[in-house]
Structure formats: structure tokens, C-alpha cells
Amino acid sequence: MSQAARVIPEGFDQQLKIVRAEFERALAYQSSDPQASLTKARFLAESICKQIYRIEGCEKGAKPAAKMMLGELVPALHKRGLLPGLIVHNIGTIQHLGNFGAHDQGLESGSITPEGIAPCIAALQYIMSWYFTEYHGQSLSVKGDSQRDQRARDVYADRFRAFLVDDGRIDMDEAQTLRMIAEGFGLNTKEAQEIEDAVRKEVETDANLRLMGSSTQGSSTQSMPAVPGEDLAAQTFEWLEPPEATTASKSLTLQLTGSGKQHTLEMVAGTTASFGRDPSRADFRVLVEPVAPAAQYPDNIEKSKRISGAHLAVDIVQSSAFARDLGSTWGTTIGPTQRLEPNRQLNIREGDQLILADALTLGVQLFRSSDGEVEWVRLPRLSNTQAKSYLVLAGTVWLDETAAGWCGTSQGSVAIRWIDNHAALCNSSTAPISVRDQVLAPGRSHPLFAGLQVRLPSGGILTVV
Fold first, then answer.
1. For residue 367, which phi and psi values (nearest 5 degrees)?
2. What is the full per-residue pLDDT of the chain (465 aa) written as tens digits?
3. Among the CATH numbers 3.40.309.10, 2.60.320.10, 3.40.50.1370, 2.60.200.20, which is that of 232-464?
4. Number of Cβ atoms within 10 Å of the Cβ of 253
5. pTM to 2 decimals?
6. How many Cβ atoms from other residues are within 10 Å of residue 217's Cβ?
7. Side-chain-facing half-sphere of 15: CA atoms under 13 Å
């Protein structure tokens, strides 16, 4: 039922206040009285289901909510499409643990500990976040004393830690849960990132835990530092001249030459890009190069055949990046052992290695803006044709011939971003740049199109191919 068609009973605001207050008590009791916390969690799950049942008009010609138990409410609401699958799953967690706490467990009564009920509290938090922020469009932010603020950070940290320890990374569903927690408690992106960084450091100091990539690859799992001073993402650039419609494109390939070296940078605009052997099915065509002439490179051709037409995707979601195998025949691993399940996203970090079909290895480099959002993900070819890399560009990238793959991580004089569906060369310096015998003043941009060649302020040459 749409929000406009919902029937909100009189005094409902007071009911929401009660739900919010009981939620705070459930959180407060987790440490001091975990059994009471379980009981309140189950009470809240049932109260929320009854409220939805009434609001959506389910009582008409049917059993009234007051006479229904949680076991009846959930299937009735789910059948009508009123409860998402993840909410049903989390209610089940509360129901099972809540029933456990509500009955005499004999010798096992002592097992009801703050740690033991953590899954129930996390499930409750997820449900509350959904109910307030998604269903009602309200904030669940608990404002008040510093203890409440700390509780929000603790809940987020505990959930992030549990996900991280489970398999060493955060997949897409887990990231969605974390976003709901952050939104529900009013944590902004920067605060959530600070909590995640602190938990990662804490977990990585444990000698008994080896996150994928930390020991086998010998490189940092942290992203590049945020840009000091003004964030380039906040800057605007005006066209030197309006681009022609024919230059609109989602992708771009650059040949970058400087200091006697050449690098090929293929880039795709947006927050997701696919990799595969078939250019009609993937944004980036990836092969074990070279493959021509065929008579000279039979091994490369055979290895390339193992890479599926649409093999892998990389997704950028706010402050995180994910790898997703697209159901490839030979599969994808992160490092030598972490195999991606088909169509399941796993969090990727700085220094990870994506191995496609045991034939081609791509590295991972991330760059975040000052507010913690991922601006781009670069995937250099590590095992083959190392003078080429791929860039998924969600925001802006500086060109720096001294940086790996020319992708700078600090303020530079020239940047690339997509403006109005056109790739644009932006003058982010304080001095003019010459482009096709025209003066590109600071704050101005010029469309990038095949055949364009520009000498950069550093002396390097940019050629669009």
C-alpha cells in the first residue's frame, strides 16, 4: 500500500515514541540485563508488525492484530509484500532468541550473555532502522547524552566487527545493513568510516587473524588518504566550448606518455563496470595480451579463452568498493584462495588482487574524497601488459605522470571527470593550459574525444584513442 493510502490511527505518534523508548531500553539492558533485553526485542518486533498490519488495512475482513502473535503476523505481512525478505529473516532471529530468553533454560540460563544476544540486538537495530527510515521516512537518531552517542558507535562497531571477522571483508548485503544502522543512529559517512578504520586496525593486530591480502600480498589495506584542503569533487568546471553530441560516451581510452614511458588508461564513468572477453557484453575487454599474430601467442590465446565474455564487475557504493563474479566459467578469486561466489559482492580494498580464471591478475587501488566517498577504483594489470590499467571513475581523477597509472592522489593541475555525459579535461590549476591552440583557463573544461592530443603542464602528452 502506498503511503498516501495508509491509515494512520489516532495517537500514532505517541505509539512511535513508545517504540523508540523501548528500543533504547533494549539497548541499555544488553549489558546489565541481557534476558530483559531479549524480551524487549521480541516485544518490539511484535509491536512493529502489529502497527504495520493495522496501518496497511489488513484487519478488514480478517483477524484483528490484537489477537495475533508474531508467528502469525510475519507470514501474513510477508505474503502481502509488506515485509522485505531481510526484515523477515531478522525478525526470525529475534523470535528464536527471544523465545529462548523467555523460558527456563535450566543449566543453560547463564548462557544468556551480552555477547550471546548480540545477533538479536543487531537484528533489532536493522528492523528499527528500516521501520523508521524506510517505512515511515523518519530519523531514528537517538539524540541526547554522550552515553547514547557512544552506544550508537558501539552498535555499529560491533556489527562491522562481526561481519569482518566472518570472512575478512564486507559484502553487499552486509554493507546495506551497516548503512541502515548508520542512518538509523544518525552517523554520517565520515563517522562510520572512522569506526570502520578503528575496527580494522584492532582486528588486524590480532595475531590469530589474517585478513585476505594482508599477509600474502604485503601491501596496505587502507585507501589512499583524503585530499587536504578543498575537495575537487566540490569544484565546478564550465565548458570552454559546448561539446558536440557525438562526443558523448561512457568510456574513454587514453595513451599517456611522459618521462620516456607510456601507459594506457581505459576508463568507464559511473559506479559500476564489467570486465570480460566479449566487448559487446563487458565495459572493459580483458585478454591475456598480446594475442596477435595468433601463431606467435598460442598460450595467451588459450588463457584468454578461459576469461568469460562477461566475467567480473566492480561496484562503487559510497565509501566502499565491491567485486562481483558474473557467473564466469573459470571463476574469480581475491588473492590465491578467496573465491568469489557467483553474483555475490565482496568488499575489495587497497592492495587486493583479483585473479580472473587463473589467467590474468588485476590489482586494486582506491581513492576517497575528503568526505570518505570513493572517487575511483583503478585496476592495474599485474601479471600481463603492466603498462595498462582500468579505471572505474565515479567522481574525478587527477592526472599525475609520477603516480601509478597516472592516477594522482593529491591536488594536480589537470583532472578528468564526466560532465553532461561527456568526458572532460578540467583545468584545476591556477594557470592557463593550451588545448588545440585554445586557452583553457582555470575552472574551465574541454571535451575529450578520439584523436585529441594535449601537452600537459608537466610536459607529458595525453592522447585520446
1. -135, 130
2. 445 457 777 778 888 888 988 888 888 887 778 888 888 999 999 999 999 999 999 988 889 999 999 999 999 999 999 999 889 989 998 988 876 655 444 544 455 777 678 788 888 988 998 999 889 888 776 544 455 567 778 878 888 888 877 666 787 778 878 887 777 667 788 888 889 888 887 776 553 333 333 333 333 223 333 333 345 555 778 898 889 988 899 999 999 999 888 999 999 999 999 999 999 999 999 999 999 999 999 999 999 999 999 999 999 988 889 999 999 999 999 998 889 989 888 999 899 999 999 999 999 999 998 888 899 999 999 999 999 999 999 999 999 999 999 999 888 889 999 998 999 999 988 889 999 889 999 999 999 999 999 999 889 999 999
3. 2.60.200.20
4. 14
5. 0.60
6. 17
7. 16
Residue 243, all three cell numbers: 561539446
Would you state the cell numbers that stand for residue 44, as one nine-digit string?
A: 518490539
- CATH 2.60.200.20-classified regions of the chain: 232-464
The span from the CA of 162 to the CA of 154, in Å, is 12
As a whole number of Å, the end-to-end CA separation of the chain is 52
Instruction: Retrieve residue 340's grid coordinates.
Output: 568469489
